[in-house]
Amino acid sequence: MASHSESIIREPLITGNNITYGQITDDILRPVENMPSKAWWIGFTVASLGALLWVVSISYTFWYGIGSWGLNKTVGWAWDITGFVWWVGIGHAGTLISAVLLLFRQNWRNSINRSAEAMTIFAVICAATYIGAHMGRPWMALYSLPLPNQYGSLWVNFNSPLIWDVFAISTYFSVSLVFWYTGLLPDMASIRDRATGLRRRIYSVASFGWTGSVKTWQRFETVSLILAGLSTPLVLSVHTIVSMDFATSLEPGWHTTIFPPYFVAGAIFSGFAMVQTLLLVTRKVLGLENYITMFHIESMNKIILVTGSVVGVAYITEFFIAYYSGGEYEQYTFLNRFIGPYWWAACMMYGCNVLMTQMMWSKKVRTNIPISWVLSIIVNIGMWFERFVIIVTSLHRDYIPSSWAMFYPTWVDVGVFVGSIGIFFTMFLLFIRVMPSVAIAEVKLLLKSASEQAKKKQIAEGHLDPAHVEFYKDNLIKFDSIDHSEYEKA
Amino acid sequence: MSSTKYILGIFDDPDDLMHGIDKLQKNSVPIYDVYTPMPIHGIDAKLGIKDSRLGYAAFMFGCMGGTTIFTLVYYFLVHDWPMDIGGKNFFAIPDFIPVTFEWTVLFASYGMAFTFFFATHLFPGRAPRVMDLRATNDKFVIAIDAKGNIPHEDINTILKEAGASEVKHNDRKYVSYE
């Protein structure tokens, strides 16, 4: 029930004084109900230009064919699959936050799940564009589906991880979409009931006639919980299957049984980094400091640290197994990462993902917003290089030295990748303009139990262990959205 | 006879709302429905709303999805066009597991979500049947059918005593149709 008070030693999830339910709605809907700020327009212009670059590069690819990319017969898969895996990985954090943290009853997810889920959907869209694009003739995408055809119904090969991937990615996108949209219904209704005219009509259609009656809420919570339960194994399966695209081949550097857990950890790692990149900016620009607090930032940094370390262990395991296997091709592949011509890519991969994230053991780093932001970008870069190293560095020198080659991207490769980032940000910026970027109803649930003002009331009432209160106050020091002078007096 | 159709007790605080529900029930005033901006646990039990059976729906849809794709793959790869891959068994069950899993999840999610939309009458374009526009913002509303529940003044007093910040007598059932 709403009035249950939470233990004082837990850090507050909503800060600020005199926050009411109405205030929460006002604060979160401000970007939706008002004209966009200058910062939004600048971001949107830059992102749209990026999206335009994507349109140009993809059109060029479709017009002239895949030959316009830098692929050759040795490195037949490069920036396309790198970009694909990178985007799918980024998508994973949204599901992790909305589903896994829901199952673990982590209340801090409430204020970040909405934008993280949106990010999932946009990232999977970006990933899906690569699937279409790398076919060169996008209408051929139809043949990845098991449809009767003119070859006397030669069906797609369900023994192949690539077909599993078609099913995994499409299911993942569809389930994320329904999870996200169901969660949006009550908040869309909040916009609807405050709007007038055409706006009201639009949000009325979009909110499916939501009223907030007891029965709908009860069913809604059941649906959220079961969808979370279904999404959790789903998200693990998706990156497992992506990793099998590589692991089931005989290519040294790919043919590794550790790939599924290694890829899943890497996906969570890069996804949380992207959530951090977006939210640190969103929180500032939209003025959501009271809802996305330092506790949220630090928690996400801790997850980045844990998953980054898991990834680090996986890297070490790969090297050990290469050595221990005694297979000379396997050993050469891993040696080649450092002594071969792509040594700089490996340095980026290991440096950004393992060395840099280890800085997060320090609380000062975890609670420093500019440093966290820079680190999150470093992780994004490192994870792109991880996929590049796995894919290109493994392919460019495998069994036959006479077919060794280098991969040089063309402007089209670069354009498709940079452009996909533009597409992603364009969609994200449009999202924060037209939909509530924080789950309003879920944040309201926290107001009476986990907010700073509720804790203050608890302290004022007494009956608490003074040591616990001291511990709580010490924890507040890191918060940037709290007026610390109030606590010094007490 | 008054033209009041619904009496709304509007609360600022979910705890007061719970108190209001208790008081009304103690006085044998039947509650039509309660509208809140967020899920409040415990109201469903008080109003006698049974636990959701959507979990069973999800399970059944999941079984349907898994069976569908497994049967299809069996038909494609074992019956219709068996492929000889190094003499291995055509009926390669482990290879069929990933797609079977995906469609189990897909059918369970969509089946359950659409059952939820169907059963609670949610669909794009449905006219929102809202009794007070603030119920999706910061007010917690108890709606009481005015017909048969008289005298209205007594209900007013009960709601006020329970801590309602406002009591409204609506002449129309839904305000959002305007």
Structure characteristics:
heterodimer, A: 490 residues, mainly alpha, Formate dehydrogenase/DMSO reductase fold, 70% helix, B: 178 residues, alpha+beta, Alpha-Beta Plaits, 2 domains, four-stranded antiparallel sheet, 5 helices, 4 strands, 46% helix, transmembrane helix (chain B), ActD (chain B), transmembrane (chain B), membrane (chain B), cell membrane (chain A)
Topology, please?
The complex is a heterodimer of chains A (490) and B (178).
Chain A: H1 21-33, H2 38-64, H3 79-103, H4 113-134, H5 161-194, H6 197-206, H7 214-247, H8 259-285, H9 294-325, H10 328-339, H11 343-356, H12 363-366, H13 369-396, H14 411-434, H15 440-450, H16 452-461, H17 466-476, H18 485-489
Helix pairs in contact in A: 1-15, 2-14, 3-4, 3-7, 3-8, 3-13, 4-5, 4-14, 5-6, 5-7, 7-8, 8-9, 8-13, 9-10, 10-11, 11-13, 15-16
Chain B: E1 6-11, H1 14-26, E2 33-35, H2 43-46, H3 54-80, H4 93-119, E3 140-145, H5 152-162, E4 166-170
Antiparallel strand pairs in B: 1-3, 1-4, 2-3
Helix pairs in contact in B: 1-5, 3-4
Number of domains of chain B: 2
**Approximate helicity band of chain A:** over 70%
Q: How large a portion of the residues of chain A is in β-strands, by DSSP E?
A: under 5%
Largest interface: A-B, 69 and 67 residues
Sheet-strand content of chain B, in percent, reads 5-15%
Number of domains of chain A: 1
How many β-strands of chain B, per DSSP?
4
Overall form of chain A: globular
**CATH architecture annotation name of chain A:** Up-down Bundle
Q: Which structural category fits the helices and strands of chain B?
A: alpha+beta
Describe the biggest sheet of chain A? Answer: none
User: Which architecture of the largest domain in chain B does the CATH hierarchy give at level 2?
Assistant: 2-Layer Sandwich
Radius of gyration of chain A: 24 Å
